[in-house]
Amino acid sequence: MTTYAIGDIQGCHAEFVELLERLEFDPRHDQLWLAGDLVNRGPASLACLREVRSLGESAVTVLGNHDLHLLAVARGGVPLNRKDTLSAILAAPDREALLDWLQSRPLLVRQAGEGLADDVMTHAGLLPQWSPKQAESLAGEVERQLQGEQGGAFLERMYGNEPACWDEALSGIDRLRVIVNVLTRMRFIDARGCLDFAAKAGLGSAPSGFSPWFCYPRSDDARLIFGHWAALEGQVPGARVCAEALDTGCVWGGSLTALNLSTGERIGVPSRQRN
Prior knowledge:
Layout: E1 3-6, H1 13-23, E2 31-34, H2 45-54, E3 59-61, H3 65-75, H4 87-90, H5 95-103, E4 109-112, E5 118-121, H6 132-146, H7 151-157, H8 172-185, E6 188-189, E7 195-196, E8 211-212, E9 223-226, E10 242-245, E11 255-260, E12 266-270
Parallel strand pairs: 1-2, 2-3, 5-9, 9-10
Antiparallel strand pairs: 1-11, 4-5, 6-7, 6-8, 11-12
Helix pairs in contact: 3-7, 6-8
């Protein structure tokens, strides 16, 4: 069995299918780890959701910020943005089945790697202050809210940039919001682990006193697999942890990238998008 981790698909269904063909992916024997953002901005978000869901247990995906946005629009009363390409999903006859499936996805996947270290996949990364086990537990707090009777109410209140710093004493929506923001929106942080939400470009856009989250040391040697940050182009310059950046900007004209978790080999297909 081979496990491949794939970065942000974002509605680029044709490229996703081409990449699976390049990998000679066999769902009977192989597994996919998908780093979130299956939908939005690209031309075929509905087809992407249907494709991944059809793969059953051979596809493991975490929720990204665009996936959560779809759920917030559909079930939390949040309005569509001008650039969203989600209308086909919202109008689909199998809409509710697809949304139920998406809402039941985790925010973090953790398993023992080839060595002693954990492989941990989230959409945006992991705070250096959180161990993999702690992060898994915190992600579970959000997942229980999403999958509970008050999931719609949570989605309605999920958005916000405050509080920007993690504190174990946080409770209620403040606690859940920080967990969501770390796991799905994080790029630059300061030494305390406070998030900046303004800078979204490359490393040169870092605000004073902030650095990419992967440039801070950790107390473990987990391999951290993430997407979200297309401007990195799959690189992690200055990393002080074992980090694998997989968002190579397919929806922006870059490529869609897969990582063989056993060998470290990367396989990509060029984008068909014109931007």
